[in-house]
Amino acid sequence: MADGTPPDSTPLDGTPPDGTPDPPPAPGPAEAAEPPLREDDPGEAPAGEEDGTDRPRTPEQRAEQDQREEDDRGYDDLRRVHQLVNNNFYGVVDAAGAAFGFGTASSPGLAPGTIEPAAADRALRHYLPPQPCFDEALGKLRENALVVLTGQDNCGRGAGSLALLREILGDAARLRSLSPANALAELAASRDLKPGQGYVILDYVGELPDQAVQAYEIGRLSEELRRKGSYLVLTAGDATRRRLALRDHCVPWCAPDPVELFEHCRDRLPHPPLSPDTERELLARIGEQRRPADVVTAAAVLSRQGAEKALDTLRDRYRERVQEWFRAQPPADDLLPLAALAFLEGVPERTFEKECAALDRHVRSWEQSGETPVAPPDEEPGRPLRGAVARQSRARWRERAVGLVTTEHRAGPGRDAGRSERRLVFTSARVRELVIAELHDLYGYELWYPLRRWLGDLALQGDLDTRTEVARGVALLARHALVEVDENLLKVWSEGLTNQRVTAALTLQFMCDVEHLAPQALNIVLSWTDHSGQGRALTAAMALTGRLGSLYRLEALNWLWFLTGRGERIAFSARRSLVLLLQTAEHDPESALFILRYVRTVIARAAPGSRERSIALRTTVQLLEAIRLETVEPLTAALLRGVPGSARHLGSLWADVLHSGNRSRAVGALCRTLVQLRDDPSVTTAVRELGEAMRGAMSGRQWAALCHHLSIALRHPDYAIPGARRLAEVLLGSLRGTPPAGPRRSAASLISTPPFTSAQGGRSK
């Protein structure tokens, strides 16, 4: 890891690196020979960090503690946002007025992994191959086993890649999507390319680190694919055609004729009869469309809901309203509030008014510097606004943005959940996107310079709700000005203070709502993980959670694990991010099991006594101690209750940690889990499986020691609850027929050991 590369990646199919789905832990002989369950190593964590001590600190230690508290505040903010995201997505609370959420549907292949035939069928159910580019790409793919589809975003490149692979491999083929950050040179040398497999890389963004792939490496990859009878299709922007190594493999892609595609869909869908006038208008509107997805949507709406609904879909009245508003060349008094709302939608009206006044000050200061004003001011620059207090500024919204902006009473999050207040919102989420697009298209430096300075102030000083909305607005701006957003905002915020880093991380999360921006967000984050300074590494760790970590979970795990080996502050953030990844995966059993299996694999591969194993065990104990996003319930209890198959993974991890100097913390986490599950009879089987997994990974002496220390911990007042003791008997008695080595006492008798009163939950002081 010293060269800046992440840990060994798993194979392309997402299984752990050793090729086995569930590698058993492999403690070394030295571990087995040691006395079972050693006492905690006082050198395992720095003083005052995780051991709960309050020792005197040097100035350097106090500075480190201040940094740690600052990072804690940042992760508290991330946790709050992810908690609201989970609530919105899974319907835990009423989210009608929520201002958060990453939950957009993804096309097949956006997230690396297997693309099931049924998913490909849905994506291609109305597919019409565009000519002549489809036949040209098919020819290159047959000849070289590799082709790159280039062109504008939303022109159908993703569906085209699936259609090409299925044309060669058949409709029943199980295709694989690879990460857009995959290095093509590494793929050529990889042993993970499987025979007869179709691979796709959507929105390829280039190599990391920044090193151009060479022509001979592309040739090796093509040769290896041909040798195995496999095929790879990449989609990329037009800039890829300028890369010499890929130039000969590129095919410019274009969307099919919209009217032809519409007629193609109508032939396959039932549709009502249309009058000549309606059909003419419908076809005229269809001819204006540039996205194949919009044409298919209109055809589906026509089939289900009739011509008027289909025309409403195509007319895009919101776009017409927004364009009409900007064509009137609004004065600064109207333009600036609308521009502010594009980045602060849904915040309380009092907050919006304060920040809108701050934007006005930034603009007037810029105008007084001698530059061209944004719009003709109502008053002379630099002079007090006569009658400003007398203006009915709130009432002006009824005139200033009719049909674009409205007011709603919404309850706030957290402590304000029971109190609502008025908030300005757009009449549709699409209006916000269109307003930002028009601001970018129509206004230049004279608006965007003060606007960027204002956004920078908000990212630094705004509260969490404000900064979250800033992040959402900047992510919308990135759809039109990615380079500007990266250079002028994200890079600045990523090496700033905690508030700025959180805002940058959330911006990258929201960018993943747009499919062609998700790979770019990943590319930006990975460029910060190494050789970019501590601040950007901390921001990268924060960003590799949530939506980004969910889409690219293997890359997120690999790079977060790499960051756990960096300096202590970066390592601490990486461990917190790994915990947050598991917390947000609670409702997604597949992702939760993937994370647990990944951690097991890393521990199994680490040499006994090595620094890598110490880091892995330290990270694992934090995962076992984690609580849920929504409550203080142990996360392990929720996984045992709601994720089938988690018991054997958790049992293996607990056994590994119990073999180490983190034993007391592991015992405490186990006690808290048993206490939480004590009144739930449905988890008895899972607890029994947990005990079997732990017993299978421990020697007889270690198992006896676990019984001894667990019985001591369960006598503490926090855990001395009858239900928890009964559940512990289920855990420890799961293999009662195989008595542990040493004193031949049953699990039940070990539970009666006298209490050890000096440690809460078995945690050493």
User: By helix and strand content, what is the structural category?
Assistant: mainly alpha
Q: If you compute it from the alpha carbons, what radius of gyration comes out, rounded to the nearest whole angstrom?
A: 29 Å
Give the terminus-to-terminus CA distance. Answer: 34 Å
For the biggest β-sheet, the strand order reads 1-3-4-5-2-6
Number of E-state strands: 8
3D shape: globular
Task: Characterise the protein shown here.
By secondary structure, this protein is mainly alpha-helical. Helices cover 55% and strands 5% of the residues. It has a 6-stranded mixed β-sheet with strand order 1-3-4-5-2-6. A two-stranded antiparallel ribbon has the order 7-8. Helix 18 packs antiparallel against helix 19 (464-478) and helix 30 (646-658) packs across helix 32. Mean pLDDT is 81; it is low at 7-53, 88-105, 377-387 and 734-765.
Topology:
Blueprint (H helix, E strand, L loop, with lengths): L28 H5 L25 H32 L22 E3 L1 H7 L9 H12 L1 E5 L6 H13 L5 E3 L6 H6 L8 E4 L13 H14 L2 E6 L7 H4 L2 E3 L5 H11 L7 H12 L4 H14 L1 H9 L1 H11 L4 H13 L4 H20 L28 H4 L4 E7 L8 E7 L2 H14 L2 H17 L2 H15 L3 H13 L3 H14 L6 H10 L6 H10 L2 H6 L1 H11 L4 H17 L4 H17 L5 H15 L9 H8 L3 H13 L4 H15 L6 H13 L3 H14 L8 H11 L14 H4 L15
Parallel strand pairs: 2-5, 2-6, 3-4, 4-5
Antiparallel strand pairs: 1-3, 7-8
